[in-house]
Design goal:
By secondary structure, the protein is α/β, with parallel strands linked by helices. Helices cover 44% and strands 14% of the residues. A six-stranded parallel beta sheet has the order 3-2-1-4-5-6, covered by helices on one side. The protein has a six-stranded parallel beta sheet with strand order 9-8-7-10-11-12, sandwiched between helices. Helix 4 links the parallel strand 5 and strand 6. Helix 6 crosses helix 9. The chain is elongated.
């Protein structure tokens, strides 16, 4: 493992209240990581102690027996050891600014795209252009379509900077295409399990099952009318054969209103199709749905989708798929090999500017932006009908496509394969850092500069090394005793984490025992690495009235 994972419990768990694709992907990633290297070292970067504890617990629960290393903002310099910080999203500009405090070449940064349609995600991508990202950083794009979208946004921002400020070069991170992975063996279902699942759901021998699994959202996932109409038409074509079609919708609705909308659409568009509803948030229901499925359908038509793990899961389960020809599905499903990719049509470039404007001005929420934009994407219903009819009418085709998909899923999308691509990328980034020989950053973080620099105009003057200080008390021991009393006060003791060590403070006070001394000379007995902290500590001792200036004007005017 050559990267530390930026771990936030919510991003790697499907147990939260709001289940999204990125949660499932994060949880699957961790399982795959531990399975591929059960005894290997794991590194995590966390923002809070609770996340550190959660990472250790999660790693152990997944079977990790190796060493677990936790890094937090206070120990961020340790990121040099793993060499890369992996962030489970595109928003790593803040990490780039943090890194600048240690030198831009100290380690690499690597993010990954999930949904990029939201304003927050787009802002994160745009911010990468002005943040101190480097050629040894990368944003993993999970599909070629998403990479094209990300590149368009980055290039638009680069053009803006060139036009506005005359920027001649705009460094950008690498944009490798690496798919999401899965643990393929989790989608093995025995014949006995299939028989039991079909019996539990009262599915007869004369019925074939089409499965849709995932969020049931017509505005933010897949508008179901295309699937409903195509299934209804395909069923009418096979009535003479005496076989029936069952649709399983294994997912969840955001609200009761959405659930009613789906039910109303089914009654109108596919009255001949028996529908079974299962809760996709329950593992047992998901497994039951997969076990009894013959075909998987995912006619996504929404810009919130980027990769789409469901078709890959279906392939791992040995099931043929009927998917829309849409973003990441184009990379994963081979048309007429693993299933069918159904053509899609969207409005042309230039016809969505009003939608973008309404969203930018917050007239429409993100949900409404998705809903309105997806209203102008169509899935070819006749082509979907032909695909369903072909698969429903041919068990042999289903078997052939399913086996081809199963082999493809294991060869290309199992985490054991995908994680190898991650590690090869992280090694490439490390090689780029070494080749470039980047030096320490000199620009700093403009929005987080030294407060005594940004606000240097506030005080009358500042303490210098040649400023002369003296004890206020008659002896160093008296000063130590008074200081010890002050430190019991909450308003004094709170500063402990940023003060010199007690022994160093005492050395400083002892150094004034014989009379006034220049500040630089006084701290000379401290370790070289601690002298700046000691000089600052003198101001703190002045604040408490333990030391003072020995002359009316020992401070240099700025």
């Amino acid at each position: 493992m050559t990267a530390a994972i930026h771990f936030q419990s919510e991003a790697y768990s499907t147990s939260g209240k709001k289940l999204m694709g990125r949660n499932a992907a994060g949880e699957s990633f961790l399982r795959g990581l531990v399975r591929s290297r059960p005894a290997g070292d794991l590194w995590a970067f966390v923002e809070s102690p609770s996340d550190g504890e959660a990472f250790i617990e999660t790693a152990r629960s997944l079977g990790s027996t190796g060493n677990t290393h936790i890094i937090d903002p206070g120990t961020a310099a340790r990121l040099r050891q793993p060499g890369t910080l992996f962030n489970p999203g595109p928003n790593f500009s803040k990490h780039a600014w943090r890194r600048s405090l240690f030198g831009d070449g100290s380690w690499s940064l690597c993010g990954i795209t999930h949904t990029i349609a939201s304003g927050r995600a787009m802002d994160s991508i745009v911010d990468l252009v002005t943040a101190p990202t480097a050629p040894w950083d990368a944003l993993i794009c999970t599909s070629h379509a998403v990479r094209d979208s990300v590149a368009s946004v980055l290039e638009a921002q680069a053009r803006y900077l060139t036009d506005r400020f005359g920027a001649k070069t705009v460094p950008l991170p690498k944009l490798p295409v690496i798919p999401l992975g899965l643990n393929a063996d989790e989608f093995d279902y025995s014949a006995d399990e299939r028989t039991a699942a079909r019996a539990q759901l009262n599915i007869g021998d004369d019925e074939d099952v089409v499965l849709f699994t995932g969020r049931l959202s017509f505005h933010a996932k897949a508008h179901p009318l295309a699937m409903y109409q195509a299934l209804e038409r395909a069923q009418r074509r096979r009535e003479a054969a005496g076989r029936k079609t069952v649709l399983i919708e294994c997912g969840w609705h955001a609200t009761d209103r959405v659930a009613r909308a789906f039910a109303d659409a089914r009654r109108m568009a596919c009255p001949e199709i028996r529908t079974i509803e299962l809760d996709g948030r329950i593992a047992a229901d998901r497994r039951k749905a997969w076990a009894c499925a013959d075909i998987v359908s995912s006619l996504v038509d929404n810009i919130q989708e980027t990769f789409g793990i469901v078709p890959v899961e279906a392939m791992a389960a040995g099931l043929p798929v009927v998917v829309s020809d849409w973003d990441g599905y184009r990379d994963t499903v081979r048309d007429r090999v693993d299933g069918f990719r159904i053509p899609t049509v969207s409005a042309a470039v230039g016809f969505g500017e009003d939608l973008a404007r309404r969203h930018a001005l917050e007239i429409d929420s993100y949900d409404w932006y998705l809903a309105y934009s997806s209203s102008f994407t169509a899935v070819d219903i006749e082509a979907a009908t032909e695909a369903f009819a072909a698969l429903l009418g041919s068990p042999e085709m289903r078997l052939r496509m399913g086996e081809q998909g199963r082999q493809r899923a294991r060869e290309l999308f199992d985490w054991s394969v995908v994680l190898t691509q991650y590690e090869e990328l992280w090694q490439e980034l490390a090689d780029l850092r070494r080749t470039a020989r980047p030096g320490s950053a000199s620009h700093g973080w403009p929005a987080r500069l030294d407060p005594f620099d940004v606000f240097s105009g506030y005080p009358t003057s500042s303490l210098k090394r040649d400023s002369v200080v003296q004890l206020i008390d008659t002896s160093a021991e008296a000063a130590k005793k008074r200081l010890e009393q002050y430190l019991t006060l909450e308003m004094v003791g709170f500063a402990g984490p940023v003060l010199p060590e007690t022994v160093e403070i005492h050395l400083t006070l002892d150094g004034l025992e014989q009379g006034p001394r220049a500040a630089g000379e006084l701290i000379g007995s401290l370790p070289a690495a601690h002298q700046d902290l000691g000089l600052r500590g003198l101001v703190w001792l002045m604040k408490l009235g333990v030391v003072g200036l020995s002359s009316p004007a020992p401070l240099e005017k700025k």
